[in-house]
Design a protein that fits this description.
mainly alpha; 2 helices; about 90% helix
Length: about 70
């Protein structure tokens, strides 16, 4: 459900992690893992926002019905 920013963070992070592994640069490898985690966190936030919006819409629909 993510957006372009989260996908970009994950791709950038994977590239950094691979470059860090290839060169033995632990700092770069760590930065890559951090960027990937940041992208995953953005995906999770987007999903949570969607879930809240869905619940809000569902509750609104229930309140509108005249049973």
């Amino acid at each position: 459900m993510g957006d372009d920013r989260s996908a970009m963070d994950k791709a950038k992070g994977k590239a950094k992690e691979m470059a860090g592994k290839a060169t033995g640069d632990d700092r770069l490898k760590g930065e890559g893992r951090t960027d990937q985690a940041k992208g995953k966190a953005k995906d999770a936030m987007d999903e949570a926002k969607g879930n809240v919006q869905g619940m809000r819409d569902s509750l609104k629909d229930k309140g509108d019905s005249k049973d």
